[in-house]
Amino acid sequence: MASYKDRLTRDLDAWIGAGLVGADKRAAILAAVPDPRRLDAATALAWIGGALLGIAAISFVAANWDGIARLARFALLLTFFALAAGAGAWAAHKQRPIFSDIALTLAALIFAAAIGLTGQIFDIAGEAQAALYGAGLAGMALALAGRSAGAAIATLIFIGLGDFQDFEPFDSLRIAAPWLVVFAPLSVFLALRWRSAPLAHAAAIGMLVALIWFSLRFENEAVLCLLFAVTLAGAGAAARWLWRRDNAPASVFYGWSAWGALMFFAIAGFVDSWQGGANWGIAHRLAWLAASGGAIALGRYDRHMMVTTVGVLSFIGAVAALLTDLGLDLMTAAAVFFVCALAAMIGGLMLRRKAKPT
């Protein structure tokens, strides 16, 4: 997705061509806008190294488990955790945010492993769900203490695993809300506040997973899926508004909200028929086609690749569903798709050739 500076560069060229801005001002305007921060090779290797270090520490304790006394095992776990957390605090004090983030993420992983290993050390019987939730709470505490996006991502993973521990679909008698209902929106806020794209992806997925959790608790709830679709469409509109005001992570929520809204809208048209009830039929498919076309148009207008891609995939799904409802067999449907694909490719090549300067 294009950054603000990339969009500004294109706009400046258009403004200069229209005579609205002098060409001599172009370099000065672009120099006043900082370059977007990108994940370089050194940072990527540092993240990989931090993850491998955590795995190495846990593997070392596990490999020597039987040969280490109980108190020594517990002391090792505390030492590893204290070292990682202390390194994160030191890096934050020295204003090294990347190193601090990696160290606190490592501390969250070590704490999660320590919960299970400590239970084995002292023969403590407990539920796996409680252990996962405990690891998630510790990870969020570390994330808030050190502004660590990595620890917040680890938190969402632990909480999500805990929510689906011993999960039984379509059991409406057990409707206790998943913890992601709290932690995913909190992570959305943190991603926007810290301007973290990786955390934005994790938080958006966490929100979708929480909605899927609810949708799997009930049967014949097409209305619930429609409600989720409308809610996500509204969230996407809000994210788009923030993104166009230069909050880059909001672009991530914009894309994932579009994906979720179209997904739940599509599911709503099939839920009743899957359960033996009424089928919304062609009316739903036509509305699905319209929504998909709108997503494609909006994505192209905003130059947002994810929204455009989601719209295209949704459009293909809607066409397939419509052809099935009309009673076309697979060979006929395949021929229709082939002709449409061929026409799209030819049209794209013609437009590209027309756009090239002669």
Describe the structure.
This protein is mostly helical and 358 residues long. 77% of the residues lie in helices and 0% in strands. The longest helix has 26 residues, at 249-274. The two termini are 29 Å apart. Residues 274-278 have low confidence and may be disordered.
Main sheet specs:
none
The strand count comes to 0
Helix content: over 70%
Helix-and-strand structural type? mainly alpha
How would you sum up the global shape?
globular
State the end-to-end distance: 29 Å
User: Strand content of the residues, in percent?
Assistant: under 5%
Mean pLDDT: 78
Question: Can you tell me the residue ranges where pLDDT is under 50 for at least 5 consecutive residues?
Answer: 274-278
Instruction: Write the H/E string, N to C.
Output: HHHHHHHHHHHHHH
- How many DSSP helices? 14
The Cα radius of gyration reads 25 Å
Give the topology.
Layout: H1 4-17, H2 26-31, H3 41-63, H4 70-93, H5 97-121, H6 128-146, H7 149-163, H8 180-194, H9 197-215, H10 222-243, H11 249-274, H12 282-302, H13 305-325, H14 330-355
Helix pairs in contact: 3-5, 4-5, 5-6, 5-7, 6-7, 7-8, 7-9, 8-9, 9-11, 10-11, 11-12, 11-13, 12-13
